[in-house]
Specification:
Blueprint lengths: L5 H4 L3 E4 H31 L7 H26 E4 L13 E6 L5 E7 L10 E3 L3 H6 L7 E6 L2 E10 L1
Parallel strand pairs: 1-2, 4-5
Antiparallel strand pairs: 3-4, 3-7, 6-7
């Protein structure tokens, strides 16, 4: 019996081309701009004297830890990323599609782009394929009604269009 390697167990990260580009731009900024700024903040704080009781130094070191942590996170996301091309087949909902749904019993339709977890931004209408609504929509067709369990109870949505 073969043992699974660590890479076999790694979770896939789905990104649209746009999402991958945004992450790469953020990574470039953090590596080429923010690192230098933080290093300068640390240098300036050290110049103020004793670092053991220097709030500016502590703040700069915390900032450095955040920037380095974010760099590592983005690098790992991009390393594991599966880029989702613009999907021509709009018969069924897939990652990268814009889906317009209408909550059963309500008049106003809502549109969402189904994206990977790393790109989720509900305020921009970008929901994860793993979210309750996103996972309920995957593989479904126009006209289908999906049920989504929420803390307030089950809500039904009818799929109006897939782009």
């Amino acid at each position: 019996m073969a043992m699974a390697t660590g890479s076999d167990n790694e979770e896939k990260v789905y990104l649209t081309k746009e999402g991958a580009k945004k992450l790469q731009e953020e990574l470039d900024y953090l590596v080429n701009v923010r690192r230098r700024e933080v290093a300068q903040h640390i240098h300036d704080a050290k110049a103020d004297g004793d670092v053991s009781e220097n709030a500016g130094y502590d703040e700069a070191k915390n900032e450095q830890a955040f920037v380095e942590g974010r760099i590592l996170t983005i690098q790992q996301i991009l390393k594991k990323a599966i880029i989702v091309d613009q999907v021509e087949d709009t018969d069924t909902v897939q990652i990268g599609h814009k889906v317009t749904v209408q909550e059963v019993g309500f008049d106003e339709p809502e549109s969402y782009v189904i994206v990977g977890s790393a790109e989720t931004n509900p305020s921009e209408g970008r929901i994860s394929h793993k979210s309750p609504l996103g996972s309920a929509l995957l593989g479904r067709k126009v006209g289908d009604v999906v049920s989504v369990d929420t803390p307030g109870g089950t809500i039904e949505f009818k799929i109006l269009s897939i782009e």
